[in-house]
Amino acid sequence: MSQDFLVGVDVGTGSARAGVFTRDGQFHGRHEVPILMRRTDANFAEHDSGQIWQAVCEAVRKAMFIAGAKPQDVAGIAFDATCSLVVRDASGAPVTVSRDGEDRWDTIVWLDHRALDEADECTRTGHEVLHYAGGVMSPEMEVPKLMWLKRHLPQSWNRAGQMFDLADFLSWQATGSLARSQSTLTCKWTYLGHDAQSWRQDFLARVGLEDLLEKAALPQKASPVGADLGPLTAKAADQLGLTTTCRVGAGLIDAHAGALGVLGAFTADVETIDRHLALIAGTSSCVMALSAEDRPTSGVWGPYYGAVLPGVWLNEGGQSATGALLDHIILWHSAGGEPTREKHLAICNRVMELRESEGLALADRLHVLPDFHGNRSPLGNPSALGVISGLTLDSDFDSLCRLYWRSCVSIALGVRHILDTLNTKGYAIDTLHITGGHTRNPLLMELYADATGCTVVEPSTPDATLLGMAMVAANAAGLYPSLDQACLAMQQGGTARAPKVEARAQFDRDYRIFLEMLKQRQVIDALD
Questions:
Q1: Per-residue pLDDT tens for 346-363?
Q2: Does residue 490 contact residue 280 with C-beta atoms inside 8 Å?
Q3: What is the pTM of this model?
């Protein structure tokens, strides 16, 4: 029997998901398993990579059962993950990244901001590698995290023999291969995929990581996204419920997998792909813009070469807390409580009722800057703080709904700020392709169109990120001659929503206020 199925795996901040697809991109089954995260304070967050692998294996097995797929019918598998840092010793055993020394916690989560000082130190070098990281080093990237580890946990650094971006760790668990994806190394490790001198040893030496390539067991050259890393090992095949004939593709950072899933349809015309933007929106939001040439943009990560598709440049903007911000607003408000899905929907429904009488002007003297966890783009300021203007003594449920609504508005205006910045650099973005948890929030989906003035496309596939990984798996399995051909053959289209013309005046006003508040915050921060 021919191998007709492909498995995509996506590891996010709070869960591991697996999806089963056919070679033409049809979805057949999906399962999600929670993963653990330990927060010891606001800037520290850690995972247990062993528990993540267990969750991945459970998710794959149950997705296969739901899909009714047989192990021998799976041709390929591929893994994406958050850009979290996994530390192992030379034998593969976990090495602690925690201040309490417990080896179980061997992974620094992407959103961990322990390395703020180290990130600033990297930025002050002014090195050429920053030209390909938006001009500013973020504490969410691996280099400052590695600097922190070497300085603050020298015993862990001395024990380390292998370090991985989480997606590469999963590929290593699956195959035993120490190959690393061009997506992870280019975006988070200062690897310059477009240059013959891909690693800049002088930069690594300046930040005290002259021994990084040896300590992390890094290759001199990254593997292109979708490259065949080999078959599953017997052990991994048994754990995943698959076979050793299943090939493993070089994966991506999770948001990049989402970009591949929603923008893959446009790879045939890379010259006009810059009209389309991928918005992968969940706990945080990532904004992905592709182009045929490099377009350096201050405060926007990149330009990254080959980080999503071989030969194509990527600029990546983002917001460090969006879904997390709305959760925080609910937790923080006296009328809130646990930010369950039901609570979010109850608030959204009440906002819609309030708008029937007050319209889009609902709470229009209430304004929010959403930078509660810093501003990733376009300001590139991880120390930026959130601002709320226009509060009263109201503390009932309706006051929570008004604050939630205006926080949603601020999130959408933050995307508009990123788009405006990108469009000054040669992009002509007029269409947003959205995937992730925000597609289940009716207020955000409406605002992404109305507040930005863009057409919003929601993918027809139930999980575009998993579809992106199935595309990678199909390429690794040799089902298509190239990754872009796999994308074209497997893309599923979507449903478009045009912005409402009558909403333009309200959100233009809100945007002017948004920009003015940014200026005022800067003035206040500069005062002695």
A1: 999 999 999 999 999 999
A2: no
A3: 0.90
